[in-house]
Amino acid sequence: MPENKNSKTILIVEDDPLSMRLTADLFELNGFNTLCCEDGSSALETLKNDIPDIILLDINMPKMNGFEVYKRIREDSRLNQIKVIALSGSVMKEDEERIMAAGFDDFVPKPIDIKGLVKKIRGYLSI
Amino acid sequence: MTDNMEVQYRELVENANSIILRMDTKGNVTFFNKYAQDFFGYSQEEILGKSVIGTIVAPTDSSGRNLKAMIDDIVINPLSYVENKNENMLRSGERVWIAWTNKGIIDQDGKVRGVFSIGNNITKLKQAEEEILKAKEAAVSANKAKSTFLANMSHELRTPLNAIIGFSELVKDESVGELNGKQKEYLGYVWESGKHLLSLINDILDLSKVEAGKMELELVEFDLKKLLKKSLVFISEKAIKQEIMLASDIKEDVGVIAADERKIKQVVFNLLSNAIKFTPKGGKVGIKAEKTGKNEVLVSVWDNGIGVEAKDSYKVFSEFEQIISEYSRQYTGTGLGMPLSKKFIELHGGRMWFESEGKDKGTHFYFTLPLKAG
Known about the structure:
The complex is a heterodimer.
Chain A: E1 9-13, H1 17-29, E2 33-37, H2 40-49, E3 54-58, H3 66-75, E4 83-88, H4 93-102, E5 106-109, H5 114-125
Parallel strand pairs in A: 1-2, 1-3, 3-4, 4-5
Chain B: H1 3-15, E1 19-24, E2 29-32, H2 34-40, H3 44-47, H4 67-74, E3 83-89, E4 95-106, E5 112-121, H5 123-172, H6 181-211, E6 219-223, H7 224-241, E7 245-250, E8 256-260, H8 261-277, E9 284-292, E10 296-303, H9 337-347, E11 352-355, E12 363-370
Parallel strand pairs in B: 7-9
Antiparallel strand pairs in B: 1-2, 1-5, 3-4, 4-5, 6-8, 9-10, 10-12, 11-12
Helix pairs in contact in B: 5-6, 6-9, 7-8, 8-9
């Protein structure tokens, strides 16, 4: 998909390849530019050069989980204004509470409601 | 007392099938009956004048409880130990559990002169009690393991479901190209089945939470009347599709209740969609709500559909039981909706039941909710 200068860019951090493909294609179909990272450290690497408009961050990832990645993002003064939305298949009330308590801007349970997710992201970006 | 009577009393005490002893205020044994001698393994000569500590009472019991301190207290304060269970020790060193009744021997000045004790061996009872406690702990931890397993399983199932539901929706909605009729229809089935599987997983998780006593209600005050009316609007599309008429009789005095709104919504929606599901075309489904005298609201969802035969009535609130009939349409329920609804209502301190006069006579489902938070 060619990069659109006027489009918003979403960074997707997700270790499951099919979930990544789904989310990335979904946002590209909806006119977004996407940055895709399959783990936390490559996401932090990407963020050194590219500043996305919004970040979708999976929580349950091996090595560096979503909480750790989130903490690092918030420590970076260039990034601390970007909305970060948590994605997780752990959907118990206590999981959601833990995520919101960590400071995430929102929580989206898996499986994702694709129409709802696009609407939500558009809402955050006011588009 | 005549000699004869004294002999009789002595025989009574010596031959009793209980430990009978007396000790002075220092805890030294001053009387020890025959049963006690046989039980503990000390002759009268060996024990009289000796302290109970170190003979029949170990300074500390197997769990570390300080028994010396207990004896020191009993001889001062026997009233606090009228009924007392503690560990004792046989001469062989074997530990036993005795249920004691203690009585202070009080002199004319009201001073405690000693303690008179009768004891019975409850070691077996105590062991059985410990086994029951262990079994209970094992059951609790097995149940915890089950909940953990369910939570993990739920998480693992969500990842593949994410792809199934998401990709089928993208294709079904023709976001990535046009489809012919059959392709669209079949992909619709994939998507619906994925969603069905997801609601099954959610219901199982909810049910296991209720069973583990971990389901917490988020009580808020809301207008039940509004919720019921909204639910009717929500279900009307389904009713029109099935050519079913909806009726509403919601009284004005059904007002604000304190309850978990999401769960009550789930219950009402479940009752309404069940009523529609089990009512043939051209039938009627209705909702009725009123305040009853006892500070509670009574809601009923009724239909003139296929009814419930007496032989099937046990299935209604059972898990994974669905009444099979020509009208039950495939993939429309998880088999957990009713048992879960009943549990949700009971968590609120309400009741749920149903009435049906039999096959093709329709069904009335009822639930109550307390007007004040239960």
